[in-house]
């Protein structure tokens, strides 16, 4: 049985027993030679050293398909109000950013970040031949594939494979109980945890510790050997994150929501100067087909208040210039509201960058053209893989083509 399939069929695939599916696939800190994971490329035996840029990347995923038009509102566009007689945000309520666009009124914290020149808004981000399925579209975003490609590794997992060979699995950390495809590589995965103390207690399970110590006494079998290495790596990463989580306690007040608590953990690990440099955080619930307004505004407020606290925290500690925050969703919503006071799955959407060193804060490009739609949907202007190429090349300082499988024009934004 192949190692990947073996993992899926063992009892250790359960989150109650360490979950190798979200753990590193090689021993920590090795310089193992890895090959290309993307299509249409050849293997290489080049060993790439760990990136030492000292920069932090925080990625926030809006799961469910955020309604970009009710987030960044085209308050002077009559077509917006014609298509949304019930859901459109009143022009009087909008927090105006320029003559045409403004923020949903609950986004006071995000508007403050914008006013300070720390936010770049990229409109109309998507990909050709868009897919309106949550699962498929999220897979496309996670793997950086074309809509007709099916890749098994994520863009950040391939970054770990190819450009960060000296990194531990917790170099990529998802603040959750399970690992997204974006952080899964061919040779190695990132690490997932939502509570450092709870995870450490789990990995200190006496059975697991005893089993790990017995490794040298049992006949070596490839799959069994791999599981031992996985357990050891899990214990190592869990212990490391737990210890680092105690180094620095923030004085900034974060929202008491789960999202706020996750951002607080991220901030404290960044302030502790941990080996973790890429953080992945989820905010779920954006599939607003029915009675959208209240649910959507509650989510946007959680995001806005959390971002405001995180930016304030990082700025106070002199860390904002070394941190880039990117927020995306798998797709937007349709322009026209539905009969259930909600919106259905759409295509292109806006994407946010927050940081102290943005090259182009404000609106990076023009708002969506509501007069030129494709079957009722927005037409994308910027391929999301251009965003990834920009982050990889200009922020993480690695070869984007090696990770994405082909070249994409970068944006002048970070």
The first-level CATH class name: Alpha Beta
Question: Measured on Cα atoms, how large is the radius of gyration?
Answer: 22 Å
Structural class of the helix and strand makeup? Answer: alpha/beta
Beta-strand fraction estimate: 5-15%
Question: In words, what does this structure look like?
Answer:
The structure is a single chain. This protein has 414 residues and is an alpha/beta fold. The protein has one domain (3-38, 55-404): 3-Layer(aba) Sandwich (Alkaline Phosphatase, subunit A), CATH 3.40.720. The chain contains twelve helices and twelve strands. The chain has helices at residues 3-9, 78-83, 108-115, 134-143, 155-163, 196-203, 206-213, 222-245, 258-271, 292-316, 384-395, 400-404; strands at 56-63, 72-73, 95-96, 102-103, 119-126, 172-174, 191-192, 278-284, 323-329, 349-355, 362-363, 382-383. The strands form two sheets. Strands 1, 5, 6, 7, 8, 9, 10, 11 and 12 form a nine-stranded mixed sheet that branches. A hairpin with a 5-residue loop joins strand 3 and strand 4. Helix 6 (196-203) runs antiparallel to helix 8 (222-245), helix 7 (206-213) crosses helix 8 (222-245) and helix 9 packs parallel to helix 10. The model is unreliable at 3-52 (pLDDT under 50).
């Amino acid at each position: 049985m192949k190692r990947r399939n073996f993992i899926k069929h063992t009892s250790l695939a359960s989150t109650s027993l360490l979950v190798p599916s979200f753990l590193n696939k090689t021993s920590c800190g090795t310089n193992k030679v890895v090959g290309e994971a993307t299509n249409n490329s050849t293997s290489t035996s080049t060993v790439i050293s760990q990136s030492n840029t000292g920069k932090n990347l925080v990625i926030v995923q809006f799961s469910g398909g955020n309604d970009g038009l009710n987030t960044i509102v085209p308050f002077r566009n009559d077509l917006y109000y014609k298509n949304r007689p019930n859901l459109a945000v009143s022009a009087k309520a909008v927090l105006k950013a320029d003559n045409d666009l403004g923020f949903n009124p609950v986004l006071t914290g995000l508007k403050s970040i914008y006013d300070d020149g720390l936010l770049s808004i990229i409109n109309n981000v998507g990909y050709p031949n868009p897919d309106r399925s949550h699962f498929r579209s999220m897979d496309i975003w996670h793997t950086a594939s074309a809509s007709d490609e099916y890749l098994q590794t994520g863009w950040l997992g391939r970054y770990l494979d190819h450009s960060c060979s000296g990194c531990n699995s917790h170099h990529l950390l998802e603040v959750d109980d399970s690992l997204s495809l974006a952080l899964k590589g061919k040779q190695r995965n990132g690490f997932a945890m939502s509570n450092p103390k709870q995870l450490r207690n789990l990995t200190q399970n006496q059975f697991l510790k005893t089993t790990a110590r017995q490794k040298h006494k049992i006949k070596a079998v490839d799959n069994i050997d791999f599981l031992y290495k996985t357990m050891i790596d899990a214990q190592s990463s869990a212990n490391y994150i737990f210890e680092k989580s105690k180094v620095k306690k923030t004085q900034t007040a974060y929202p008491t929501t789960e999202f706020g608590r996750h951002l607080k953990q991220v901030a404290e690990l960044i302030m502790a100067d941990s080996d973790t440099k890429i953080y992945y955080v989820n905010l779920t619930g954006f599939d607003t087909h029915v009675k959208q307004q209240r649910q959507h505004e509650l989510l946007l407020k959680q995001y806005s208040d959390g971002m405001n606290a995180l930016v304030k925290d990082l700025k106070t500690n002199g860390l904002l210039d070394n941190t880039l925050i990117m927020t995306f969703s798998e797709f937007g919503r349709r322009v026209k509201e539905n009969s259930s006071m909600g919106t259905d799955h759409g295509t292109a959407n806006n994407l946010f960058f927050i940081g102290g060193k943005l090259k182009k804060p404000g609106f990076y490009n023009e708002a969506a053209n509501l007069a030129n739609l494709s079957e009722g949907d927005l037409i994308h202007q910027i391929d999301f893989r251009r965003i990834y190429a920009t982050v990889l090349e200009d922020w993480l300082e690695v070869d984007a083509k090696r990770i994405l499988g082909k070249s994409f024009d970068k944006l002048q934004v970070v």
